[in-house]
Amino acid sequence: MLEALNPQPQDKILQLIALYRDDPRPTKIDLGVGVYKDATGLTPVMRAVKAAEKKLWETETTKTYTGLAGEPAFNAAMVTMILGSGYADRAASVATPGGTGAIRQALELIKLASPGATVWLSNPTWPNHPSIIKYLGMKMAEYRYFDAATRGIDFNGLKTDLAQVAKGDVVLLHGCCHNPTGANLDAAQWAEVADILTAKGAIPFIDLAYQGFGDGLEEDAASTRLIAARFPEVLIAASCSKNFGIYRERTGVLIALTDPARRAVVQGNLAYLNRQNFSFPPDHGARLVTMILEDEALKADWKAELEDVRLNMLSLRTQLAEELRRATNSDRYDFVAHHRGMFSRIGITEAQVNQLREQHGIYMVGDSRINIAGLNAGTVPILAAAIAAVGG
Ligand code: LMR
Predict the structure, then answer these.
(1) Angle at which helices 263-277 and 98-113 cross, to 10°
(2) Cβ 372 vs Cβ 324: under 8 Å
(3) Element (H, E) at 82
(4) Is the CB of 34 under 6 A from ligand 1?
(5) How do residues 104-125 score in pLDDT, each as one tens digit?
(6) Which one-letter DSSP state was computed for residue 348?
(7) Banded model confidence at residue 251, pLDDT cuts 50, 70, 90
(8) C-alpha angle 340/341/346, rounded to 5°?
(9) What are the DSSP calls for 311-329, one per residue?
(10) Tell me: the pLDDT tens digits for 372-390?
(11) 118 lines ligand 1 (CB under 6 A)
C-alpha cells in the first residue's frame, strides 16, 4: 500500500528550520519561521505562563477528558478577548490544536455546510491556507492584496477581485499583522471591504494569529470586531501560539458567529468535527490561557510583557528602516517601519534571498518574508548591509 505514496512538497517555511540548524556559521541569522525571539535569540516562556503553570501543577487534581469543545471557560475567555462582550448568544466555539487546527476545522465546517462554496484568499497569503484547502478538495480563488512596487496594499486590485465573489462564498481575511506581507488594511479600507462583502452576500472568515503584535491587543481586534458587528455569520480562527508564546502547546479557538436560534446546532457541528478529527482538543495551553485571562494580576503581567514584545518589534522596524536608508542610500525600504506584526515582505528576488543565505548566512522565506523578531540591535545593520550587498 505505502509504495503508492509520492513525496510531498516540503513546507517552505518549516524547511528553513532544518537548513538553519545545519548551518555551522556562528554569524548565521534566522529570519524564517514566525517565532518571537528576544535580543538573545531565545523564545521565552512568558512570566504569566510560568506562574500559571506553577499554580496548575499545585492545584490540578485530574487529567481526565474535557469536553469535545474544550473547556467552556477557555472558549468564553477567548470570545471576550477577541470580540469584547455581548456575543454569548451568537458565538459557537471550540478549542482547537493551535490556530492551524482552528483554520482546518473552519474549512471542514464550510465543507460540511456549503460544499460548493469557493474560499477566497489574499494573494499572497500564509502558504498553509491554500495547502489545506487543496488537501480538502475545496474550491479556492485569490484576490489581489499586495502592491509589489510600494510594498503596501493594492486596494484597487483587491476591490476589483472581491467584486467577483459569489453569494455564499467565503472570504478569508487576516485580522491583523498580515502574513507574509506585513501590509495591513486601515480602518476605512476594512469598512469598504465589509461593504463589498455585505453587497455580495459573502461570509467573512478571519484568521487572527497575531493579536497584540501589531498596534496593541485591543487595536488588533478592531477589524474583527467591525466584521462581527456587521455580519450575521462570521468564522474566526484565533491562535494563542504567538501572543501567549505557547507555540508547542497547540492552543487555538474556532468561533462561528451565527443567529442565536442556530447557535446550538452550529455548536454541535463544531464538537462533531472535533470528534471526527482528534476527539478532545489539547487542554494544557488552553487552561493556562484561561487562568491568565481570569486572574487580574496575571492578566496585567501578561499584557505588560506582550506590550514589551510588540514595542521591541516596532523599534526593530524603525531601526531596520533607518539602516536600510543608510545602506542603500534610498528611501525604498521605509515601508518596513509602516508594516505591522512579525513579518515584512521586503520585495527582493528569490535569487537575492538565496544569495543572502549562501553568502551571508541570513535565512528568510523564498518570497523575501523576514521575521522582524529574528533580529536584534546588533544584527539589524548586518542585515541592511547584506541586503545592499546583494543589490536589494
Ligand atoms: C509562520 O508563518 O511562520 C508561522 O505561522 C509558523 C507556521 O506554522 O508556518
Answers:
(1) 120
(2) no
(3) helix 72-83
(4) yes
(5) 999 999 999 999 999 999 999 9
(6) -
(7) very high
(8) 70
(9) HHHHHHHHHHHHHHHHHHT
(10) 999 999 999 999 999 999 9
(11) no
Residue 35 in any domain: the answer is: yes
Q: How many domains does the chain have?
A: 2
**Ligand 1 contact, 33 CB (< 6 A):** yes
User: Considering the chain, what is the average pLDDT of its residues?
Assistant: 97
Read off the C-alpha cell for 84: 469584547
DSSP string, 94-116: EEESHHHHHHHHHHHHHHHH-TT
Q: How far apart are alpha carbons 253 and 238 in whole angstroms?
A: 5
CA 222 – CA 216 distance, rounded (Å): 10
The residue to mutate among 17, 128, 181, 367, having the most atoms of ligand 1 within 8 angstroms of its beta carbon, is: 128
Domain containing residue 332: 9-44+303-389
Q: Could you say which of 264, 294, 324 is where a domain stops?
A: 294
Is residue 187 annotated as part of the catalytic site, yes or no?
no
Which residue owns the Cα nearest ligand 1 atom 1?
Answer: 34
**Residue 154 identity (one-letter amino acid):** D
Q: What is the CATH number of the domain that holds 24?
A: 3.90.1150.10
Question: 124 and 87: one domain?
Answer: yes
Cα 180 to ligand 1 centroid, rounded to whole Å: 9
Q: For the domain that residue 108 is a member of, what is the CATH number?
A: 3.40.640.10
Is 126 one of the annotated active-site residues of the chain? yes
The residues that bridge with 369 in the sheet, in sequence order, are: 345
Q: Write down the pLDDT at residue 32.
A: 95
Peptide linkage before 72 cis (omega within 30 of 0): no
Three cell numbers, residue 214? 501589531
Grid cell in block for residue 147: 502592491
Total length of the chain: 392
Exposed/middle/buried for residue 111 (C-beta within 10 Å: 0-12, 13-18, 19+): middle
Q: Is 182 in the pocket of ligand 1 (CB under 6 A)?
A: no
User: Same domain, yes or no, for 284 and 344?
Assistant: no
Calculate how far, in angstroms, residue 148's C-alpha sits from the geometric centre of ligand 1.
Answer: 22
- How far, CA to CA in Å, does 277 sit from each of 97, 101, 116, 143, 271? 11, 10, 21, 30, 10
